[in-house]
Amino acid sequence: MTTVFNDPTQFAQEMLSGFCRLHADTVQPVTGGCVRATETPEGKVAVVIGGGSGHYPAFAGWVGPGMADGAVVGNVFASPSAQQVHAVAKAAQRGGGVFLSYGNYAGDVLNFNLAQERLNAEGIPTRTVVVADDITSASAEERHKRRGTTGDLVVFKIAGAAAEAGYDLDGVVEVAQRANDATYSFAVAFAGCTLPGDPDPLFTVPKGRMGVGMGVHGEPGIAEEDVLPAADLARMLVEKVLTERPDGARRAAVLVNGLGGTKYEEMFVLWNDIAPLLEDAGVEIVAPEVGELITSLDMAGVSLTLFWLDEELERLWVAPAQTPAFRRGSAITTTRRDPAAIEDATAVTYPEATTESQASARALLAIGQRVAAALHEHETELGKLDSIAGDGDHGRGMTNGADAALKALTEAVEAGAGAASALAAAGDAWGDRAGGTSGALWGAGLRAAAGALADDSAVTGAQVRTAVRAALEHILSYGKAERGDKTLLDALIPFTEALEQDESELAQAWAAAAQVATTEADATADLTPRIGRARPLAERSIGHPDPGAISLALVMRTAAR
Hints:
Layout: H1 11-22, E1 27-30, E2 33-36, E3 46-53, E4 70-76, H2 82-92, E5 98-103, H3 106-121, E6 126-131, H4 151-164, H5 169-181, E7 183-191, E8 209-212, E9 223-226, H6 230-242, E10 251-258, H7 264-280, E11 284-291, E12 300-308, H8 311-317, E13 321-322, E14 327-328, H9 339-344, H10 355-377, H11 379-387, H12 394-414, H13 419-434, H14 436-450, H15 461-479, H16 489-501, H17 506-523, H18 538-541, H19 547-560
Parallel strand pairs: 3-4, 3-5, 5-6, 10-11
Antiparallel strand pairs: 1-2, 2-4, 7-8, 7-12, 8-9, 10-12, 13-14
């Protein structure tokens, strides 16, 4: 059980602060995570990794020479926001482009992709390799759907060593992808993990039993079996992972990982049985790792990873590294980076704006104030609606997002920002604080809408219509949903179409479109969810409208007023 904490909602932030305080010689905290505290050469590819907290030493523990230049740190078991990814990448980059890597989970994919798009638009070349090594989460034919587990360490180490050796961005991507394709993992769990402040574990395993093929957040495995003696467990792990041994593969890095509640002594016993089995199968073991490599708070369990090597990958695997949680080879000489230079990389500035655009920004602020008040008024009912087929956090997520957006709008207006910059700041803040897929999509939509506005002129009705369409298209490109899936799109699409088709004055057209959105949101009660978190409990949601569509219609009606 996780017992050492203050405010559970601040666990990730306090953890990161304590980690950076302890390892101040290696890492420095920045907005969204941490970066190297030591100098790196100009033109070097910046390797930026990340994911949710609760998995130490992933991800902050792997920042340092020979590995990552920065780590993005989300809340416990939650994806970091696109804004966090962007901020860490900006602080870490040195002119050679940014390489992003993370485990294959929907929230991480959405937010890292949003950040990558933004970085590329700003002229910072950015590429990604998504780690997908868990053999039980998808078939070999659908490797792209596999979860990222202990393979994170493999891919991050290879990418970091390549970047340290002077590879360009394309070269780092190529070897990292090759490492990902050569990595296979399999895990078992003996007991669930408990989030800070929660009295009960996320999942349970009956006494004397183990979950076979479990994910690092307690995702379902492929079976449940009796706990085995170490020798038999070793045989199961080895046989499972060897089922996908590439033709002709002989040399492999081998990783035995403890998920947090399994002690080192137990893993040493397991290794004593695993190593001979691999050797009997003709595997030449290279630089093995046994210990806590990627954990899940206090989950009891172990995993086995095989990383099949060629000559280049082996050279990069054994190359020196010097991080708080992973050290290899001889010491690397470093020079401390000027902390002020890192802080400047994340400073907020706004382009010069005309008085007309500043007036439009003040109008946006007034709308933001009304929207935040309306969402607080309806927070409880939105939460209850979401609890029917979800986890009941939609109301809180919407108020968190609106409050953060309002704060950002206020600061932008006080700094003299124009409409485009003010709305972009609001979108960033919403996506950063709201959490979940809905928050990410709202943030992305607002930022896309900001791109249709300007800082050198007042906002026009035509620009507003263009901005709404831009938001819709951006959400469609990332959300993987369509009309009829029982999501916010069932309100946003008809709203956009009605606004574009109504040629009357903007305020009148917006009000009419908001009523269309309200009617369509109410009509989602008859739909069955086909995507997202509500899909597994689809039957429960029939007869109840989608909370995302309802909240979107509420925002549009409030803006109309």
